[in-house]
Known about the structure:
The chain has about 210 residues and is α+β, with helices and mostly antiparallel strands.
Amino acid sequence: MEFVTIKEAVQAEVTEKKSKFIANFFPVQSEEEAEKMIRQLKKKYHDARHNCTAYRIQEDNQVIEKASDDGEPSGTAGLPMLNILQKNNLCNVLVIVTRYFGGILLGTGGLVRAYSDSLLKAIEKSQLLPTCEGTEMQVIVEYSEFDRFQYYCRNNNILITNVEYRDLIACKIELEDDKKQKLVQDFATKNIILKDIKEIAKKYIAKSI
């Protein structure tokens, strides 16, 4: 499965007839993390009238989706935001839109528009990351071969996520499955000189463009 996520949290605001809508848009990795974030934000904005939410998360080869109107008329907040996430193929994301009531009723259409516009504004501000299934691996390389290995990674769209300098250099890398097959083959044929490689876990990674 391929989807789009966001690099980091962003915030956007919309004002509609004196009501303020504050959208907090987060990258999340699990339903547990999303629910924890919702509790934290509700505590932070405890004086607000509503904290409406929507999230989509890839877990155990299925997409978990949830939306809440948090006291707004049914279908005017959470579901419209969830629909936007679906249409944009956004996953592993959570949006919480906090509403401070301005004293003027917006009506059903006004609420849908305000909550939707809040999320759309947050998406516009976000750095979007196309994501696909891949693998995290550990590579052990000698110091004398490290520059050559870095060059190899750049040329093959392999991301080095962590480097530890020991007697030898231990690197964690993320790569798409076709790149993994090439690395394993190049290691076996000594096209790239490494001391060892091993798979750590399957995971969703940034898709190379």
